[in-house]
Amino acid sequence: KAAGMERPVTAINRLFVILCGFEIIPKTISTRDRGERFIISVPITAYLLDTTEGWVLFDTGLDAANLQEPQRTGLFTSKGWDPPPVVLPSHDLASQLAAIGISFADIGRVIVSHLHADHSGHLKYLRHARVTIQRREYDYAFSGKAKPSWFPSDYDFPDIDWHLIDGDFDVMPGMRILDTRGHSPG
């Protein structure tokens, strides 16, 4: 350690990037109406952090059960989400957690960037965890005005331990949430 140089303190030991599927979408969905002639493949990801305070999951991917009929038609194609996302057996979040050596039950904290279905699909299996989300996103999701890409069946449970925040937030040493609204209300 160089004189006067303190090493940053962090509670994060390891980070796992988990591929939970992918979507084939018009580029305009991600680029605010630019690139309308392009179709892109976008990964659906979750990020698992091994921290000194326990396991933290950032986003929860898309629940493949929602892609089975009749949910597939009701949640995706009938609402214009066509083609629906692709979630292969190798993308199964529970299996990927097991390969790391944990299960949903081991995750004590979840941070959700927003409640679109490709980010909130497994919240129903994490109701024991503390779930951190921007208050604006939470309020919109439960307002009755949320658009078709929000699936209340993934997150509308009275026993979820919601931790609502407003703006930037320090989760723990080395982990800070930044308010980047725009893609969704929160």
Characterise the protein shown here.
The protein is built from 5 helices and 8 strands, in the order βββααβαβααβββ. The strands form 2 sheets. Strands 1-2-3-4-5-6 form a 6-stranded mixed β-sheet. The chain has a two-stranded antiparallel sheet with strand order 7-8. It is globular, with a radius of gyration of 17 Å. The chain has 186 residues and is α/β, with parallel strands linked by helices. The mean pLDDT is 91.
Main sheet properties: 6 strands, mixed
Fraction of helical residues? 10-25%
The total beta strand count reads 8
Task: Walk across the major sheet and give the strand order.
Answer: 1-2-3-4-5-6
* Integer-rounded radius of gyration: 17 Å
Termini separation (Å)? 40 Å
Low-confidence stretches: none
Tell the overall outline.
globular
Query: What structural class do the secondary elements suggest?
Result: alpha/beta
- Average pLDDT for all residues: 91
Helix-strand string: EEEHHEHEHHEEE
Features:
about 190 residues; alpha/beta; 6-stranded mixed sheet; two-stranded antiparallel ribbon; about 30% strand
